[in-house]
């Protein structure tokens, strides 16, 4: 490229990951809605034999949404954002282009194999780490390829300053690399049992409390460095670009960055309160979780204040609405988690439906909203076409917002009801309710949750259709929009 010439960015890999984001989002959310209706109406468990039961489908849902949808969204935005903020095109380096394409191919194969193996019942049974050892090795390979892409593009950049979004992507890469390797140390059962077990199954190299400690050090930080840190990277790029506003405070973004990185890694112990792990570790998990409010809200407030003086854009720009509501749900979720980690609250909340309520107001409200907003912003610039339909976007926004509210409110009520019923004693010290009593009383709330999930899924289908029509039938743009994305009526 000659001096002064416009950089021709290459979006081929970003487009591939965008397709994967939509595909795995549909799969993960369809399974999630099926599971929600199975909990409300247990007879649905038996319609498809063993392959349609809750226990067989549940790992498919969590892995599909976390590592299918969310990681695809992270990679799609990385290959878009990195080129633009580093001022370098992927096609300037044939080596990095090859790495990026290999990254996508191996990633896509891994997720498809994950769907097959989980359906067949091959699972380590560890939360967010269900994939067996051959797939773990594949994950490590394409994660390293992503690292080569990150530092390779940084190495050939024209823009000397690393924008804050790049910091957050780097943090996600390094932290997950460390966490994933340590938590997935395992030995094929065939070797551990002297040649009697399956070569595909494995057993963890840790046992008992050690296994629990490592698992939740990993499990909670999978939430931190898949559902939080790279999503913050997205909003720090896409909100200023879409609104035409500067980030409110660059210093606050860096302060919150280092706060998140230091504190988050110590908070996993709050999953093990009242368990066999040392009491000091449980207390440390609680304390660090409460401290985590500061950097989390620091990031979220920074995002909201970016719109200072420009709130009128919410009336006209649906993408800004998605991002601002995402930031609001981020604040809600990051105050709710620390509250649940306080020991006295945890005594009521643990093992109840309040926990999935908390997870889903974070994932549906923060993660999915932000990923969809990012892809909507990217679409006109990647495909050179206007976003197909504003009315479809607006309908999707309100339908999904209603779905989230129904979901988390029903689960809050169900969870606290469960916790209180489990702890109810009569004057003789006997439990007042049997376990089945608590299950029966929750059925209406499970139904509301399932309806909320269905509304959200319908909204995601609207998003998928809007993206497809944008790429294939949107009005062709004469030039790339500077800020607000062009949308047809």
From TrEMBL:
Cofactor binding, per record: Binds 1 copper ion per subunit, denoted as copper B. Binds 2 heme groups per subunit, denoted as high- and low-spin.
Keywords (A to Z) from UniProt: Cell membrane, Copper, Electron transport, Heme, Iron, Membrane, Metal-binding, Oxidoreductase, Respiratory chain, Translocase, Transmembrane, Transmembrane helix, Transport
Major location (coarse): membrane
Pathway assignment: Energy metabolism; oxidative phosphorylation
Amino acids binding Cu cation: 220, 270-271
Catalysed conversion reaction: 4 Fe(II)-[cytochrome c] + O2 + 8 H(+)(in) = 4 Fe(III)-[cytochrome c] + 2 H2O + 4 H(+)(out)
Entry's Gene Ontology molecular function annotations: cytochrome-c oxidase activity; heme binding; metal ion binding; oxidoreductase activity
Chain residues that bind heme b 1; low-spin: 61, 360
Ranges where the Cytochrome oxidase subunit I profile domain occurs: 17-489
InterPro entries: Cyt_c_oxase-like_su1_dom (IPR023616), Cyt_c_oxase-like_su1_sf (IPR036927), Cyt_C_Oxase_1 (IPR000883), Cyt_c_Oxase_su1_BS (IPR023615), Cyt_c_oxidase_cbb3_su1 (IPR004677)
Cellular component per GO, a single term: plasma membrane
Membrane topology according to the record: Multi-pass membrane protein
Top class in the EC scheme: translocase
Places the protein is found: Cell membrane
Residue positions binding heme b 2; high-spin: 358
Enzyme Commission number(s): 7.1.1.9
Domain of life: Bacteria
Swiss-Prot/TrEMBL cofactor(s): heme b; Cu(2+); heme
Transmembrane segments: 16-40, 60-81, 102-121, 133-154, 166-183, 216-239, 248-267, 287-306, 318-335, 363-383, 404-425, 445-465
PANTHER family from the UniProt entry: CYTOCHROME C OXIDASE SUBUNIT 1 (PTHR10422), CYTOCHROME C OXIDASE SUBUNIT 1 HOMOLOG, BACTEROID (PTHR10422:SF29)
Family named by the database record: Belongs to the heme-copper respiratory oxidase family.
Protein name: cytochrome-c oxidase
Provenance organism: Malaciobacter marinus
């Amino acid at each position: 490229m000659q001096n002064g010439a416009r950089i021709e960015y290459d979006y081929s890999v970003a487009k591939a990951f965008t397709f994967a984001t939509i595909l795995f989002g549909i799969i993960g959310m369809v399974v999630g809605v099926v599971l929600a209706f199975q909990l409300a109406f247990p007879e649905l468990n038996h319609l498809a034999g063993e392959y349609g039961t809750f226990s067989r489908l549940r790992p498919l849902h969590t892995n599909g949404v976390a590592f299918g949808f969310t990681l695809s969204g992270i990679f799609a935005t990385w290959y878009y954002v990195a080129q633009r903020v580093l001022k370098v095109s992927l096609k300037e380096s044939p080596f990095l282009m090859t790495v990026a394409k290999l990254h996508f191919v191996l990633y896509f194969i891994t997720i498809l194999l994950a769907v097959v193996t989980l359906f067949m019942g091959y699972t380590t049974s560890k939360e967010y780490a269900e994939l067996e050892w051959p797939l773990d090795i594949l994950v490590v390979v394409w994660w390293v390829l992503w690292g080569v892409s990150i530092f390779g593009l940084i190495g050939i950049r024209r823009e000397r300053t690393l924008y804050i979004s790049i910091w957050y992507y780097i943090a996600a890469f390094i932290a997950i690399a460390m966490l994933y390797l340590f938590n997935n140390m395992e030995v094929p059962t065939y070797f551990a049992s002297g040649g009697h077990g399956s070569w595909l199954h494995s057993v963890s190299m840790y046992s008992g409390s050690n296994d629990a400690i490592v698992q939740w050090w990993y499990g909670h930080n999978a939430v931190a460095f898949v559902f939080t840190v790279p999503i913050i990277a997205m909003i720090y790029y896409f909100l200023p670009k879409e609104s035409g506003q500067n980030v409110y405070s660059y210093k606050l973004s860096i302060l919150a960055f280092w706060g998140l990185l230091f504190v988050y890694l110590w908070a996993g112990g709050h999953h093990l309160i009242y368990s066999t792990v040392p009491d000091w570790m449980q207390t440390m998990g609680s304390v660090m979780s409460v401290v985590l409010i500061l950097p989390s809200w620091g990031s979220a407030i920074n995002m909201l204040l970016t719109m200072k003086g420009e709130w009128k854009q919410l009336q006209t720009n649906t993408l800004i609405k998605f991002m601002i509501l995402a930031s609001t749900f981020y604040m809600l979720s990051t105050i709710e988690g620390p509250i649940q980690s306080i020991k006295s609250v945890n005594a009521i909340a643990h093992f109840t439906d309040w926990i999935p309520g908390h997870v889903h107001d974070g994932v549906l409200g923060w993660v999915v909203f932000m990923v969809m907003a990012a892809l909507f912003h990217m679409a006109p610039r990647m495909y050179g076409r206007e976003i197909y339909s504003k009315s479809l976007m607006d309908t999707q926004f309100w339908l999904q917002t209603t779905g989230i509210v129904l979901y988390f409110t029903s689960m809050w009520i169900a969870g606290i009801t469960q916790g209180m019923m489990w702890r109810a004693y009569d004057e003789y010290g006997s439990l007042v309710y049997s376990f089945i009593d608590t299950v029966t009383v929750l059925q209406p709330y499970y139904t509301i949750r399932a309806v909320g999930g269905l509304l959200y899924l319908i909204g995601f289908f609207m998003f998928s259709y809007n993206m497809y029509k944008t790429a294939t039938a949107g009005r062709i743009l004469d030039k790339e929009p500077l800020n607000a994305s062009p949308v047809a009526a």
